[in-house]
Amino acid sequence: MAVCISIIGKDNAPLYLTTADMDKELELQYRVHAALDVVEEKCQPISKATPESKELYLGMLYSTETHKIYGFVTNTKIKFVIVVDSGNIALRENEVRAMFRNLHMLYTDAVCNPFYAPGEPLASKKFDRAVQKIMGGNA
């Protein structure tokens, strides 16, 4: 399903990144980094008179010949980016939303660990295994 899942902190520091193909990890990191500009653009309010949108799911940020990149931002400005193979035409919008909901729940559980220091990269093996299940579509 997904070829890359990334979690970016509110200061744009990477907290977690995993890829299905280690040979393309650098390219996927570039795709995630490029998506941050689109996330910032979508998160800015249009004017001060309009309240900020409560929608956490940002939808498809952009697409390339080989990938579609989707975004999600939490209330605490933590950004989730999922890169999907563009050849996967069976993937629906509600399935991507479900992936983000599951990832958000996993992230919340991981940072609620009393041994986790906020802002540090996520190094939990349990978290990594659960994210790998999301990437494989077994969530």
TrEMBL record:
Query: What InterPro entries does UniProt report for this protein, alphabetically?
Result: Longin-like_dom_sf, Sedlin, TRAPPC2L
Q: Which UniProt keywords apply?
A: ER-Golgi transport, Transport
Localization, UniProt: Cytoplasm, Perinuclear region
Question: Has UniProt tagged this entry with the keyword Transport?
Answer: yes
Keyword Transport in record: yes
Please state the protein's primary subcellular location. cytoplasm
GO terms classed as biological process: endoplasmic reticulum to Golgi vesicle-mediated transport
Gene3D superfamilies under this entry? Answer: 3.30.450.70
From what superkingdom does this record's organism come? Answer: Eukaryota
Show the GO cellular component annotation of the record: perinuclear region of cytoplasm
Could you say which protein family the record assigns here?
Belongs to the TRAPP small subunits family. Sedlin subfamily.
What's the name of the protein? Trafficking protein particle complex subunit 2-like protein
Species: Bactrocera dorsalis (Oriental fruit fly)
**Which gene name belongs to this protein?**
LOC105227520
